[in-house]
Amino acid sequence: MSPSKTINIDFTTFHNIIDGKQRDAKTYTNGVDPTTGEKSWDVPVATEQDLNDAVRSAQKAFESWSQVPVEERKDKLRAFVDLYTEYKEDFTNLLIKESGKPRAFAQREAEGSAAGVIGHHVNLNIPEERYEDDERVAITRYTPLGVVGAICPWNFPITLSIGKMAPALLTGCTIIIKPSPFTPYTALKIAELAQNVFPPGVVQAVGGDDKLGPMMTVHPGISKISFTGSIATGKKVMEACAKTLKRVTLEMGGNDAAIVLPDVDIEKTAPQVAMGAFMNSGQVCVATKRIYVHESIYEPFLQAITKAAGTFKVGLSDDPGVMLGPIQNKMQYERVKGFFTDSKKNGYKFATGKDEVEEMNGGFFVQPTIIDNPPNESRIITEEPFGPIVPLQPWSDEAEVIRRANNTNAGLAASVWGKDVARAEKIAKQLDAGSIFVNSFSKLTPKVFFGGHKESGIGGEWGNLGLLAYCNAQCIHTFK
Ligand code: NAD
């Protein structure tokens, strides 16, 4: 163990974390290294009994944790950041192993999540409102909901676990994290590490198979589900949560449009738009998934973005200059390949050249790909590929392109690009999505609320408003 580390943590064995203890199981599953397709470490599959025990422990812990003064809860969160920071390289390496992300991006996630997300939340205060008239004083206060079940996807396993843990713990809730079965490793280790800071039952993690999420959503002891994942699963989560009237926050998929105005600096803007579409190999809920370019600059913009996409090197995490890693799992890899097959079958033009995915290293790698002006009803326009393949279409009429951008069941994010900022902002305000970026691709921050419109979500998290998603409002009316 390095002298800079307080405790010995083994980053190669994984346990469910229940009631302050490491718990193993009768059955095991495993993730897969997406750069090779080879099996990764074993992880225990949590049973219904494990979940029941975790919920009981979380309920018991809630009784005292919710009564701890908020400033002391913040101190505990700060202590967790300090402890986590000692292991930031271990978390980076673990994240690389489970996701295949290029080192610089994995580092940003592993290092930035605790310091950035928790670091921001400890500066927030839980609001209180006061109303007074001749007969009464009424105080509206916000009380913690109880036990939170955090159901996470596989694309940002550290950020999204910590992104739910920070507001839950700050407001006085306790949390049971359920990572995606594709990326169980970092979340289980976060919870293991957290046992050195928080009382038993405050932070727990259970990993397992496809049965666990549904079990959580119907569990009567869980007060809230914070879900991040696909729209299809989110609908099932909401339906299941209705049985116990659990509170839900649903953060789901997007089909984000980028609208490029005729006055942009093409050479400067095209690489930025490409970055917005291809970062994390397109496996970002707020990645640009449809690009609309004004017809007067369509051809030069297409050339510039195609050139930019060609410079994004795809490869192993530690390859020099690598920008994009693999698709995280085989199921998603096959789904992304389906967009290539569909586009090829329908005769769409592949601006980037290759019209199929070439095998590389046994892993799930896909080269960044641009489809030149497919029809509005094509799959690549109407569905979220969640991979590095994106369509580009021309537009001429502003009202018409706004309609086209809004013509989707999703409403997560969008971007507008133009030198005329007033015009770009005017367009931004007409887009039906939760986060709009003017002259930037999606750059989320925990300091600002994030949530989707339409089928991209219910409620949201982060920022001052996000804190309230973990609370009930309670009004105390005291009569004079
Ligand atoms: P997914 O919906 O397949 O799975 C998400 C989580 O739900 C996993 O932990 C999974 O085990 C669990 N789950 C599956 N079925 C369940 C059920 N019936 N009940 C309860 N839980 C269940 O999503 P994914 O493939 O892991 O992630 C990709 C999707 O997530 C994309 O659509 C992406 O846009 C979206 N996403 C959204 C955000 C956001 O903040 N809006 C962020 C990241 C990813």
UniProtKB/TrEMBL annotation:
Catalytic activity: an aldehyde + NAD(+) + H2O = a carboxylate + NADH + 2 H(+)
EC identifiers of the protein: 1.2.1.3
Enzyme class: oxidoreductase
Domain annotation Aldehyde dehydrogenase: ranges: 27-474
Active site: 251
InterPro entries reported for this sequence: Ald_DH/histidinol_DH (IPR016161), Ald_DH_C (IPR016163), Ald_DH_CS_CYS (IPR016160), Ald_DH_CS_GLU (IPR029510), Ald_DH_N (IPR016162), Aldehyde_DH_dom (IPR015590), LUC3-like (IPR044086)
An example molecular function term from Gene Ontology annotations: aldehyde dehydrogenase (NAD+) activity
PROSITE patterns: ALDEHYDE_DEHYDR_CYS (PS00070), ALDEHYDE_DEHYDR_GLU (PS00687)
Keywords, alphabetical: Oxidoreductase
Family: Belongs to the aldehyde dehydrogenase family.
Protein's UniProt name: aldehyde dehydrogenase (NAD(+))
